[in-house]
Amino acid sequence: MTASMVSVCTSASKAATRSAGPSAYPSFASYVRARQPVLLRTARSLTANPSDAEDLLQTALTKTYVAWDRIEDHRALDGYVRRALLNTRTSQWRKRKVDEFACDELPEPETVPAGDPAEQQALHDAMWRAIMKLPARQRAMVVLRYYEDLSEAQTAEVLGVSIGTVKSAVSRALGKLREDPELTPVR
């Protein structure tokens, strides 16, 4: 159920509760019992999802209930409810955000060919050897930032230094790692 349907149903039902009690319109209840299957078919023709059709019909019937005492010709109730269904569905359609698209095939994520595990391990080892060459403070900051995935502020807090110190030390450390001859083949 969309947010717009909730607000429509809620405000309409509150208005109906204020204006009349639950059994104020026995003719409305008998009308709904008699015509609900036909009206539900109409609602289903307006939506693709049966649950959405039920919600749509409920909203339209709520609007009809609120206007029950203003409807002069009760022989034209089906037309009134159908118009409420159509207007409600149009409003929902205009307000909705399109975040799903129908397509013939399910989109599959592109698979990246997995590299040779031996090469990946060699790269991992070379990276650690290069990190171990860094001064202890820079090494700690690189490990906390990129291996432990801490933010600059968190890294500064753990090490008891300022954020600026973390930024400059990590920048210098990355510069040294870029220049490391063992990591040159990776680039």
Can you put this structure into words, describing what you see?
By secondary structure, this protein is mostly helical. Helix content is 68%, strand content 0%. The protein is built from 8 helices and no strands. It has helices spanning 3-19, 26-46, 50-66, 77-95, 117-132, 136-147, 152-159, 163-179. Helix 1 (3-19) runs parallel beside helix 3. The longest helix is centred in the first third of the chain and has 21 residues, at 26-46. The relative contact order is 0.08. Residues 1-20 have low confidence and may be disordered.
What amount of the residues lies in strands? under 5%
What is the rounded distance between the termini?
51 Å
Large-scale geometry:
elongated
* Unreliable residue stretches: 1-20
Mean pLDDT comes to 81
Biggest sheet details: none
Order of helical and strand elements? HHHHHHHH
Number of strands: 0
| Oligomer category | single chain
Radius of gyration: 33 Å
Structural class: mainly alpha
Q: How many helix segments?
A: 8
Helix content: 55-70%
